[in-house]
Predict the structure.
Amino acid sequence: MRVLISGANGLLGQHLVQSRSQEFEILGIIRSKNLTGIRVECETRELDLTQFSEVIQVLDTFAPEVIIHTAAEGRVDAVQERIDEFRTLNVKLPSLLSKYAKNSGAQIVHLSSNAVFGGRAESYSDYSGLDPINDYGVLKAEAERSVIEQNPGALIIRPILMYGWPQPSGRQNPVTSWIANLREGKKIRVVDDVWTEPLAAWDCAEAIWCALDTDMSGPLNVSGGVKMSLLEFAHKVASVFELDSSLIEPASSGDFPTLAPRPGSTSFDLKRLTEELRFHPLSPLEGLEKLKHDEPAMGR
């Protein structure tokens, strides 16, 4: 089976490639081959994904049977108040890929985000109404609607706060950033009024492959299933990696006024994931222990 993965050198993309079936022929789309220390375990193609004519040419040549689209501008604060600048990459591109998949008979997986939700005390189901509170979430919500409009059989994956070892030149996630700073003896400030359900990137990758195996479509919420504040999660990171937790200082979201607003509390109803798909991700504690165990294997 021919599978095209956009963002193959990203956090999720690298785990999708690593966990693939040996029967799959993977073409990974990456932004640049010149990034220091990049490791992608498949054939790759460097491509500017905003150049749609080039994207179509690659699709026509490779003729994928599955398209897994993970590439996007994922920096929430970078998108804030620059929504028109990123609409082509974050909305028009997934819409194009979804339409292409529909016309060619390929399966399409679009990576969305919990940012399509604005936060509330009760859990969000896979089919809850979208209510984003920042511009990044607005674009993700637009993309979801457009992808489904173009292709009702599309699969929409919504992860929460993914963590894992990135490529050496890749963007850090909160966990790896906390580890790096604490190892250097630096104090870190972590908010205690944002609640989430941290998810290991490799579990998100496995959930995607499982969903493809069952021809699942529609929205699928994916998380680690345990709700905790970011501050609590940071302390778990320090404990598992045997770092000085006294360097972790509590803060509130109001202490960072330049940041885009974040949902105060996001948790997922995981019935589709655990009952329909029968997939059970690692808890955050289990995921952190695996992350620590796997660190030497990642060459760090």
